[in-house]
Design a protein that fits this description.
This protein is mainly alpha-helical and 349 residues long. It has helices at residues 2-13, 21-31, 48-65, 70-87, 96-108, 114-133, 160-169, 173-185, 189-193, 221-233, 248-254, 275-289, 296-309, 314-321, 326-332, 337-347, and strands at residues 200-201, 204-208, 214-218, 244-246, 268-272. The chain folds into 2 domains: 41-144, Orthogonal Bundle (DNA polymerase, domain 1), CATH 1.10.150.130; 160-347, hpI Integrase, Chain A. It contains 16 helices and 5 strands. α4 packs across α6 (114-133) and α7 crosses α12 (275-289). The longest helix has 20 residues, at 114-133. Belongs to the 'phage' integrase family. One of its GO terms (molecular function) is DNA binding. It is found in: Cytoplasm. It holds the Pfam family Phage_int_SAM_4.
């Protein structure tokens, strides 16, 4: 109960204070040490049909205080209630068999991919794991279920010819800046759209990765020139983001559909480009130049592969990408047998 009260206090004042949330939480625990906290309520128990919803709200409140990203909280808010509705039981009665049946239905009847099933199991595991640790349920049924194994495929990076075609196909400074940022930094699309102009310092950019962890990525000469040219083309805006959100209602009238209207100030609004807009931009660019399979993540894979081929140690490649484990980085690399043969001749006696 004390933990719940502290979480509520932090959530109620988080937007009005500048102190670190973790530090504030620690100070509240110290201040309340020795006090017993109980909830005054006219209700004897939480009604059974509302219990799932009540526990889920407590879970989200806790995760918000812990600093999970808005995107993660949004996914939890959509997926977990949907899963619980389909299982159709109070959380304290859910068994591992219920979860296995749910996953079987999702794969066989709903035709969901293993990736989708694995993600849904992860969301459910996070929720039930929290309830188990907090003592709301006697066991965590997900622990009896093995992980869903996915076939590990080493995805293809762009070839040098494909990269050259994409670069030549850029019609304006905005497209050029996006492509060169992807190729130079290997950043995720979510990181790219959140870059602010103030985050750029000549050849350095601060990006926020998963879990709001900041890291520095670097721009090569081509990317520096592309970003500088793009910023010069931008009109004067209060919007701090490097790639501000487009107002398509006014923009379509000014020629955005033809690619020549993005420089007009009234075509912008608050916030930044969303992921879907960037994905659509690079997809159309790929179609324009005849390169198939163009999407933001492939630029990330290309950056990692090219860096390793040119001699960057894999540990540094991993740090550049913001990975916590080298095994994750290895999945990104697209190295052919010929690359291995050349490396063997170079390094092995």
């Amino acid at each position: 109960m004390k933990d719940e009260l502290i979480s509520k206090i932090i959530l109620s004042i988080a937007d009005d204070i500048s102190i670190d949330i973790g530090e504030l939480k620690s100070k509240l625990y110290i201040a309340m040490n020795g006090y017993n906290v109980s909830l005054e309520s006219t209700e004897i128990v939480v009604r059974e049909e509302n219990k799932n919803e009540w526990l889920f709200k407590k879970f989200i409140m806790t995760k918000t205080v812990q600093g999970l990203t808005e995107r993660t909280l949004e996914l939890y808010g959509i997926e977990i209630p949907k899963i619980l509705r389909k299982i159709g039981k109070p959380v304290g009665e859910i068994t591992s068999d219920d979860i296995l049946y749910y996953l079987a239905v999702r794969e066989c009847k709903d035709k969901c991919t293993k990736v989708t099933c694995k993600n849904e199991l992860r969301y459910l595991s996070s929720f039930l794991g929290y309830l188990f640790v907090e003592g709301y349920i006697p066991t965590n049924p997900v622990r009896k279920i093995g992980t869903i194994k996915l076939e590990k495929k080493k995805m293809k990076a762009f070839s040098d010819i494909e990269v050259a075609k994409i670069r030549q196909g850029c019609k304006n400074s905005k497209e050029k800046a996006i492509i060169e940022l992807f190729l130079s930094t290997g950043c995720r699309v979510s990181e790219l759209v959140n870059i602010k102009k103030a985050d750029i310092e000549v050849n350095k950019v601060i990006v926020k990765g998963k879990g709001n962890k900041e890291r520095i990525v670097y721009l090569n000469a081509t990317a520096i020139l592309a970003v500088e040219a793009y910023i010069k083309d931008l009109p004067e805006l209060k919007n701090p983001f490097l790639f501000p959100k487009m107002n398509m209602t006014t923009g379509m009238k000014k020629g955005i559909a033809r690619g020549d209207g993005y420089l007009i100030a009234e075509n912008y609004e608050e916030g930044h480009m969303d992921k879907a807009s960037v994905e659509d931009l690079v997809r159309r660019l790929g179609k324009r130049v005849g390169v198939t399979g163009v999407h933001p993540h492939r630029f990330r894979r290309t950056c990692a592969t090219m860096a390793l081929k040119r001699g960057m140690p894999i540990e540094q490649v991993s740090k550049m990408l913001g990975h916590e484990q080298l095994t994750t980085t290895q999945i990104y690399l697209d190295l052919s047998e010929r690359d291995l043969e050349i490396a063997h001749e170079k390094y092995v006696l």
